[in-house]
Amino acid sequence: MRVSLIQLDVDPAESAAARRARAAALVRAQQGSDLVVLPELWLLGGFAYEAWSDGAEPLDGPTAEAMAAAAKDAGVWLHAGSIVERDPDGPIYNTSLLYSPAGELVRSYRKIHRFGFDHGEAVVMGAGTELVTVPTEFGTLGLATCYDLRFPELFRALLDAGTEIFVVPAAWPARRREHWTLFARARAVEEQAFVIACNTAGTHGGVEQGGHSLVVDPWGVVLAEAGPGEQVLTVELDPGVVATARAEFPVLRDRLMGIQAPIERA
């Protein structure tokens, strides 16, 4: 299986239309890959809060249309990162889009854990409520986004839903880059699954991005890692390693659910 991660430089000097066209061209250039992944909120910027409301789009908007066409032209599964989704009946959402090689929108995922605490995404965006897994010819994909990496219970739930390959687009800042690689490896080891984590480069909303997109195997081995700038990272991986790792080191069989601390009574 060949995976290509497009670590886009999100530059506020570049228009959204120009970046959309450039991203589509980069996707088309990955013909021969099986899965192509873009970062989180690459069109507007993961920290460009002031641009989100005006730049929000429906699931059949211009970005979705461009990504569907690019996936079909390249003949790839495309995780198109995430957009700011405009729900006509609700708030805006941070929504990931997954396309088949035929250019069909197979699933979307609204980010469950919103970053920002008392401002930014946590305040202006709605929270997703649905776990999303997608069966493919190379294994079942589980979808998560950026800040989700900090919540192992989400990944355990996705594991229980059959996930073998986690796909995680992000706009993770440079100042917490060590956390990015740590959590990607931890989730891979915990769930004995591949983690494909695609970050942004550049600076948006005044926040320098961390880059360093990476692919981690079920043993926690980093198969490939990008640098800090814009880059297309391509790696060959064997999906069969998931079953092998789980058979050779069957730690998941030893899970004990519902354990509670003993209650001391006077």
From TrEMBL:
TM regions (residue ranges): none
Cross-referenced Gene3D superfamilies: Carbon-nitrogen hydrolase
Record key words, sorted: Hydrolase
Keyword Lyase: no
Gene Ontology MF: a single term: hydrolase activity
Domain spans labelled CN hydrolase: 1-239
Pfam families recorded: CN_hydrolase (PF00795)
Domain of life: Bacteria
Keyword Magnesium (UniProt): no
InterPro entries from the UniProt entry: C-N_Hydrolase, C-N_Hydrolase_sf, UPF0012_CS
Family: Belongs to the carbon-nitrogen hydrolase superfamily. NIT1/NIT2 family.
Protein name: Carbon-nitrogen family hydrolase
Organism, scientific name: Streptacidiphilus alkalitolerans
Higher taxonomy: Bacteria, Bacillati, Actinomycetota, Actinomycetes, Kitasatosporales
